[in-house]
Amino acid sequence: MLATTAAGGLEGNYLNCHDLAFILSFIKDGSITERLYQRRIADAASTVSTLVVLPTGLGKTVIALLVIDVILQSPGSKVLFMAPTKPLVEQHYAFLRERLTIDPELMSLMTGETAPEHRPELWNKPRIVVSTPQVVENDVSSGLCDLSSFSLLVFDECHRAKGDYSYVHISEVYSGVRERGLVLGMTASPGSDLVSVEEICRTLNIEHIEVRSEDDPDVEPYVQETAVKWVPVELSQELRDISRELKSMLSERVEKLRHLQLIPQDSQGSTKDLLGAGRELSSRLSAGMKHRILFDSMRIQSEAVKLSHGVDMAETQTVFALRRYVQKLQEEAEGKSSKASRSIVADERFQLVVDMLSKITAEHPKISKLTQIIGEQLAANPSGRIMVFTQFRDTAEIVYRTLSGPGAAKPIKLIGQSARRDERGLKQKEQIDVISRFSSGEANVLISTSVGEEGLDITSTDMVVFYETVPSEIRSIQRRGRTGRLSSGKVFVLVTKGTKDEGFYYSSLRKENSMKAALMSLNARLSRGAKMSELTEPKQKSLFDY
Description:
- This protein is of the alpha/beta class.
- The chain is built from 19 helices and 13 strands.
- Helix content is 47%, strand content 12%.
- The chain starts with 16 loop residues before the first helix and ends in a 19-residue tail after the last helix.
- Residues 1-22 and 536-546 have low confidence and may be disordered.
């Protein structure tokens, strides 16, 4: 095994910058910016299957370009570059076409919209194929795509390589048909613990890890200062009263689940525990259990999940979102499909919530705090650009409506494709148009759900606002990475005091620290000669691990 360091290349196998620059015959002059850490990582990744962990905005795609260029030096070599979504695939395809000197006819773009009759030629003729993994998996299964013909497979956003995601099957087939095939996995965060990191490395047959943080000596010169500020928000008395009633209903269901031994006895009804109970009940149903107590337990668990979500809406989101959710429960109760919703709506405490909601005239205090922060930022920098991240579309809608009033803000929304109730989603072409309007300055505030967190080429912003905290270190890193790319940036995190916002904030910080420790630990083991196949298999999770 080749030795490695956290911030260096492969010892004894490192091409200096002059050597590497000499062989870059397929990259157009002046098309990329020279960065030492990118050169070092590419040098390593050109010789051994590598996982690259690099914060958002520090040029993972440039590293892929450098590796691809080395691979293309070998006659007959081919590259398959995969990314999770069509817009991201189109983005990578355009990036490579703009920077490589090879004949455009030798590059192909493959998505779900590519006609089946055109696919054989698009697989066989080009030297570079850029595709969504779903297309690759389908065409491998049907025999249209021969993975053995590719010298390099690039897995972008490779933290997805788990479970039944297409990356898993593709890697399994590739390792079986190409003994010496090279793999490049790229992500800003592979997971918060050693088991998660090992799972990705094992799935993709990774033998080497290149990890960088903003503090590494070869990265630091290119990192702009990003100030992160926690903004505490006091919940209004009206929303506290609503939350109290919903929590009272929730506590009764949680107590029943504890009595049924579906959640730990000391559980307060966390989302993890409730979802874990749901998986356990589904497993019992699939195993053939048909007892009435099982169906009663499933109803109680469903009620608890719905009520827990209602508490989150009241405490961390918007009055608008809470009203929409309450309305949804009432509509479900009128139908015949949801006994859980009928039970909730029939509770007199729920009726009290409905009555209190009808009398609220002010929005959640986060909205006024958000408006203030954005107003101050645009007053200080009228040409600035701001991203606001929120978990829910209903919250994104009320933020959009609020900022659309008089003022310097010119907001625009970026949401996913799927239709939700009375709102259709944005098709991928519409998403790209929204990003273009933000990048051009036509809009200066981009309000985004999770679709804006991963991968898409969104222009660097001056400020990012988390409307709510997220417990995922992957999502937190991706959100923060939208600012501080070209100049110093600001990150504001709105936190409703005494709610899940606080717990999620600290949870994401702990997971980030755990991720860094896990990567360093695994890297050290690999550098001492351990092989990925020799590492401990992930343990099976029990109910109480969730």
